[in-house]
Amino acid sequence: MNRTDVVLVGHSYGGMVISGVAGAAGSRIAYLVYLDAFLPEHGKALSDYAPVPPAREDGWRVPPPSTAEGFGVADPEGMLWVQSRLGDQSPQTFIQPVVLTSVSRIPGTFIQCSEAPFFAGAAARARERSFRVHARLSAEHDAMITQPNALAAILLEV
């Protein structure tokens, strides 16, 4: 089966991932949703938008940039859930550029949940691409934990 009505949602670094997927499979993607996410330009890497944190001593793992609390999650149950899912990532994910071919033709929505400069910049690029932009700055970075109902309402609109 060859779907052509796929909706991709990317949160945070996931914006790099859905952009790369859309660049490779653009004709199959119907819509993109960036949830407080990086929205890269062609040939750019995460390191073009945010500093690369230092790797662990082994050199091949970069620890998470923050804790659940640092991402704005205050509910104890939510903090446990988020904290248990935070993990290291390869340094390559910070420096590998994203190839975007047909991505500019795919409509999308950008949901800005934090005031981090790299997500504010991504929201500006989303506006330039005529995306619908929602500002949910009170949600903090993990809106799926801090404001799940409000986020679900936006996603259902898409």
How would you characterize this protein structure?
The protein is of the alpha/beta class and 158 residues long. The chain has one domain (6-157): Rossmann fold, CATH 3.40.50.1820. It has six helices and four strands, in the order βαβααβαβαα. It has helices at residues 14-25, 76-85, 92-95, 117-128, 143-146, 148-157, and strands at 6-11, 29-35, 108-112, 132-135. The protein has a four-stranded parallel β-sheet, with helices on one face. Strand 3, helix 4 (117-128) and strand 4 form a beta-alpha-beta unit. The two termini are 23 Å apart. The model has no long low-confidence stretch (mean pLDDT 90).
Count of individual helical segments: 6
Name of the CATH architecture: 3-Layer(aba) Sandwich
Q: Outline the low-pLDDT stretches.
A: none
The biggest beta sheet is recorded as: 4 strands, parallel
Would you list the SSEs in sequence order as H and E?
EHEHHEHEHH
Instruction: Tell me the overall shape.
Output: globular
Radius of gyration: 16 Å
Distance between the termini: 23 Å
CATH top level?
A: Alpha Beta
Query: How many beta-strand segments?
Result: 4
